[in-house]
Amino acid sequence: MGLTIGNFDGVHRGHRAMLQRLVEKTRELQLPCSVLTFEPHPREFFSPSTAPARLSRLREKLELLAEAGIQRTHVLRFGARLAALAADRFVDEVLVRGLGVRWLLVGRDFRFGARRTGDFALLQAAAASNGFGVEAMGDVLEAGQRISSSSVRACLAAGDLAAAARLLGRGYSMSGRVAHGEKLGRTLGFPTANIVLRRPPPLAGVFAVEVELEETHAVLRGAASVGRRPTVKENAAPLLEVHLFDWDGAHHNPLYGRHLRVNFLHKLRDEAKYDGLDALRSAIGQDVAQAKDYFRKHG
Questions:
Q1: 151-180 pLDDT, tens per residue?
Q2: Which residues face 33 on adjacent strands?
Q3: Reduced to 3 states, what is the DSSP secondary structure of residue 106?
Q4: What does the alpha-carbon distance between residue 70 and residue 93 come to, in Å, rounded to a whole number?
Q5: Cα distance between residue 228 and residue 239, in whole Å
Q6: 3 state DSSP class of 243
Q7: What's the CA gap between 299 and 280, in Å, rounded?
């Protein structure tokens, strides 16, 4: 098979250039086009408290890889055994005997194996010994800077959705299944669809959004909050809450259990703590008005 290896968090333009090269080469060699990725992210294994926010959930990543033309994605569990696996054994056990690699594409700075001792020179030697091809790919640049998952995170953390979109090659989105919440939004007059975020998100605040109901592909507009709801609860888990402007099925056709994709279009403000629910209700009302005004101005 033809293979590339990486975390591919966000599947940004740098990743997509690599995937395009892989698709082209495997078509030329008449090989299956495959990706090897890891779950969890290695940094989440080594240091959960300081690991960077994920740009995409595993499901989102798999969907984006498939859209890029990848036929097979192998998800390798990253745990203590894999972390301790020497680089030469990784090549032998995983790449050669496990996956039967015939052609391998990696980034120019790709490192692997225990203590990250494996590099491109080791892969070249292993390729010569085991009869597979290997190629290193250079960086993809935006305004002279390397496109990376870290650079996308920095843009999102700063609320610069336009810059993040340039690096991703698309608008930033998050997806998940709607869960039951505390029904506080309905009490305040702004019912929300809630998606529990099991890891810290890469952005926070209040946004104008478009929401796709993945089962029907219907697209609705709304205002979304991403954060920990400091007015409501101290040290709460992060939550994505979406108030849809034109959803009339809250009582007869609720969204619970349905899968939504939330596309972030414009940041309205940072998350804030208010002095009670009346102040929070007033702030939400202003958020909704500003989001509707954004859509009036931008079609």
A1: 999 999 999 999 999 999 999 999 999 988
A2: 2
A3: strand
A4: 23
A5: 6
A6: strand
A7: 28
- What is residue 251's three-state secondary structure? coil
Name the DSSP class of 52: P
pLDDT of the residue at 170: 97
Rounded CA-CA distance 190/47 in Å is 38
Phi-psi region of 96 (alpha: psi -120 to 50; beta: other; left: phi over 0): alpha
Cβ-proximal residues to 293 (8 Å cutoff; 6+ apart), any chain: none
- pTM for the whole thing? 0.92
The pair of three-digit structure tokens given for residue 245, joined into one six-digit string: 């402007």
Give the tokens for residue 1.
Answer: 């098979």
Extract the residue ranges of the chain whose pLDDT is less than 70. Answer: 183, 248-253
User: Any idea which residue has 């939550």 for tokens?
Assistant: 239
Write out the two tokens for 233: 């609860």
Q: Which long-range contacts (CB under 8 A, 24 or more apart) does 16-25 make?
A: 16/68, 16/169, 17/137, 17/140, 18/105, 18/107, 18/137, 19/65, 19/68, 19/69, 19/70, 20/68, 20/69, 21/105, 21/135, 21/137, 22/70, 22/105, 23/68, 23/69, 23/70, 25/103, 25/105, 25/135
pLDDT for 242? 95
Could you give all domains of the chain from N- to C-terminal order, each with its CATH number?
2-146 (3.40.50.620), 172-298 (2.40.30.30)
Distance, in Å, from the CA atom of 272 to the CA atom of 11, rounded to the nearest integer, reads 31
Structure tokens at 251: 């009582």
The pair phi, psi for residue 285, each rounded to 5°, is -60, -40
pLDDT digits over 17-41, tens only? 999 999 999 999 999 999 999 999 9
In degrees to the nearest 10, what's the CA dihedral of 175, 177, 181, 183?
80
Collapsed DSSP state (helix, strand, coil) of residue 209: strand
Written as six digits, the tokens of 11 are 């599947």
